[in-house]
Design a protein that fits this description.
The complex is a heterodimer. Helix content of chain A is about 75%, strand content about 0%. Chain A is an all-alpha fold. Chain A has two domains: about 80 residues, NADH-ubiquinone/plastoquinone oxidoreductase chain 6, subunit NuoJ (Four Helix Bundle (Hemerythrin (Met), subunit A)), CATH 1.20.120.1200; about 40 residues. Chain A is globular, with a radius of gyration of 21 Å. The N and C termini of chain A lie far apart (about 65 Å). In chain B, about 75% of the residues lie in helices and about 0% in strands. Chain B is elongated and about 55 Å long. Classes of the chains: A mainly alpha, B mainly alpha.
């Protein structure tokens, strides 16, 4: 069951991610990115990270993607015109990429023990209670600093995007 | 059937990271470049949560929350810059922005 769920949603995530990069129109990319975020939320649930899965759906698939689609519609961004790539890139790009991925996975496999199996419900330390306790005790200072980061980001976004008044 | 291990999640993360990198390097539409950056940050999150599960500790998930927060802040500021850029240059293509090119 876990294997089937993992395979289904991992394949959806990878195919949607490839679609994000391949599509020429930004709206198609944005919709594919929502697919990636949703399937990743299910994978987080399999890992026992309930709170992160909920945050993933609400923050990424909700807020961030609405922001992206809003900006795409606002700027009326059309499809990207294809521009020719060099012969070497067309010939070697994808095989080299797959070789690099294989190399990465090979080394990760060698370095990390295979003993830790993942099955649904195997780890329940990701509830909102556990995350909140860690966030407000051990990681209180980083949490508060993050609020300053968000404040600066809000100010920056408003200052950058406002119209110049004369 | 083999059970799913942490290595499988790390492999998925590596795949998303590489796809996102390709998107950043090859696409010219700035909106899609920003989306590819989101893909890369999500790949990081998979790693953090997979290790959180492997080590039976909640710390990795806290880091994932911080990564999500950073990603949202980055998207907001990036899209703000994009709107300011569009107001000045009327384009969202990264290769048509050559204000600093001599």
């Amino acid at each position: 069951m876990d294997v089937i769920l993992f395979l289904i949603f991992a394949i959806i995530a990878v195919v949607s991610a490839i679609n994000v990069v391949v599509q020429t129109h930004p709206i198609s990319s944005a919709v594919s990115l929502i697919g990636v975020m949703g399937s990743l939320a299910v994978l987080y649930l399999l890992l026992g990270a309930e709170f992160i899965a909920a945050a993933q759906v609400i923050v990424y698939a909700g807020a961030v993607m609405v922001l992206f689609i809003f900006v795409i519609l606002l700027l009326n961004a059309g499809a990207e015109t294809k521009r020719g790539r060099s012969f070497m890139v067309q010939l070697l790009g994808v095989p080299l990429l797959i070789a690099l991925l294989g190399l990465l996975v090979f080394f990760v496999d060698r370095l990390f023990p295979r003993s830790v199996t993942v099955h649904f419900g195997g780890f329940s330390g990701g509830s909102a209670q556990a995350v909140g306790r860690a966030l407000f005790t051990t990681y209180l200072l980083p949490f508060e600093v993050t609020s300053i980061l968000i404040l600066i980001a809000i100010l920056g976004a408003i200052v950058l995007a406002r119209k110049e008044l004369d | 059937m083999h059970p799913i291990t942490t290595v499988h999640y790390l492999a998925l993360s590596a795949a998303l990271l590489l796809i996102g990198t390709v998107g950043v390097l090859t696409r010219r539409n700035i909106v899609i470049i920003l989306m590819s950056i989101e893909l890369i940050l999500n790949a990081v999150n998979i790693n953090l949560i997979a290790f959180s599960h492997a080590l039976r500790s909640v710390d990795g998930q806290i880091f994932a929350i911080f990564v999500i927060t950073d990603a949202v802040a980055e998207a907001a500021v990036g899209l703000g810059i994009l709107i300011a850029l569009f107001r000045n240059k009327e384009t969202v293509q990264a290769d048509e922005v050559d204000l600093l090119k001599w």
